[in-house]
Amino acid sequence: MDDRPEPFSCDVDTASITVAQAMERIMGAVEPIRESEGVPLMSALRRVVADDVVSPADVPNHTNSAMDGYALRGDDLPDCEERNYRVVGTALAGAPYRGSVDSGQCVRVMTGAVMPDGADTVVMQERVRQDRGGVSIGAGEKRGSNVRYAGEDIRSEDVVVTRGTRIGASQLGLLASLGLAELSVVRRPRVAYFSNGDELRSVGTPLELGEVYDSNRYTLFAMLDDLGVERIDLGVVRDDPDEISRVIEEAAGQADLVISTAGASVGDADYIREILNRLGQVGFWKVAVKPGRPLSFGKLGRSLFFGLPGNPVSVMVTFQIFVKPAILKLSGESGSFQTQLVLRTLSVLRKRPGRMEYQRGIMFVDDSGETVVRSTGEQGSGILSSMGRANCFIILPDDSDGARVGDRVVVQPFAQNI
User: Fold this and answer.
1) Residues facing 114 on adjacent strands
2) What is the separation, in whole angstroms, between the first and last Cα of the chain?
3) Bond into 60 cis (ω within 30)
4) Which of 97, 269, 273, 367 has the fewest CB within 10 Å, making it most exposed?
5) DSSP secondary structure string, 67-116?
6) Peptide bond between residue 291 and the one before it cis (omega within 30 degrees of 0)
7) Are 153 and 128 in contact (CB under 8 A)?
8) 3-class DSSP state for residue 228?
């Protein structure tokens, strides 16, 4: 009998679920976007390919020289003694030699130049001696050397980029080499986000006692920008049930995914839980993870909803662990969304059993050439500066009581600094 929790339920258990259970519910609820659009090739950077891309031609599209040197017939190479060849012409990249090569002849060729008719071998210029109005080539050269054949890299009709691939620099260059001016890509996910709290103030304004600056929208802006989504910034929403309800309903009507920060716990002023129960379906409210336990997930009609904690460190951690994989799947991206390594720790890592911890770490190559990891130091959820120093999470399982110096631990690198 399958005793795993249902993805959504109106009667949500108040107990925390595990990280694995939370990820199962999240990823099970995400349906990739099917809508696509054609965009100019330059605009396809960081977009996800909607269909397999098929090459319209061979690459290279002609047999050419891989070196600067001299092209000749392979069966005309000397067996033992040095031999003299008459240079009958020159071939440049974009300016081929129009004649053919016969026995005792060669053509001066540059890298990328079309191989002359009759020639199938290139001898590098460093291995050739100028002699008697021509060139002399010694024994030991191999037939077919230093030649790139048409279709050697890609054959016409080969699939060069598969559906679900996010376009990076290498794919962009590859597609440009095929002469493709436009690409079919998945529509960008629309992600709406807002901060919740009467104590929040905008940067650049003075603070009164008890007030804090709203940093969460800035970190969300940056992390969402890295994922290439269409961002909808809804600003700061006051702790007013009617106002929160209005913003959430508005956001759900225009976004594929809605993110709030704060308002997900059980305080008197935390209204989002009640509103989500009323407007949508609840997946869970608590996850056994540190930092970030008060994390909510659910559905608002066809939109997904994440209620992240209010603490800035917890926002960054829970976004990377839970929200980012959901957005990548929503984007239609295929493949693994999280890379993990096992490294030796140079720090003592303290932890109590009971929930999974994502501690901030710095991975680097030590003097011996080994990749190792150390802690950023104090792991309090209020120490935002630690995220700026970190380049990875050190993941300590639920039942772990920490790690000693020299122990091997699981590390999840950041794709980029966050």
Assistant:
1) 64
2) 42
3) yes
4) 367
5) SSEEEE-GGGS-SSS-EEEEEEEEEBTTB---SB--TTEEEEE-TTPBPP
6) yes
7) no
8) coil
Strands 69-72 and 257-261: unpaired
What gap in Å lies between CA 331 and CA 333, rounded to an integer?
Answer: 6
Q: Which two tokens stand for residue 19?
A: 């990280």
pLDDT digits 0-9 by tens, 234-283? 988 887 888 888 999 999 999 999 999 875 555 544 667 777 888 888 88
CA distances, 184 to each of 43, 47, 161, 328 (Å): 11, 9, 11, 17
In sequence order, what DSSP letters do the residues of 63-75 get, joined into one string? -EESSSEEEE-GG
CA dihedral sign, ordered 110, 111, 112, 118:
positive
User: How much is the pTM?
Assistant: 0.83
**Residue written as tokens 């839980």?**
273
Greatest Cα pair distance in the chain: 97
For the record, the structure tokens of 33 come out as 């976007």
What pLDDT, on a 0 to 100 scale, did the predictor assign at position 267?
53
CB count within 10 Å of CB 59 equals 18
DSSP 10: S
> Per DSSP, which regions of 220-309 are E strands?
230-237, 257-261, 281-284, 289-290, 296-300, 303-308
Whether 93 contacts 110, CB under 8 Å: yes
The dihedral region occupied by 104, where left means phi > 0, alpha psi between -120 and 50, and beta the remainder, is: left
Distance CA(291)–CA(355), nearest Å, equals 10
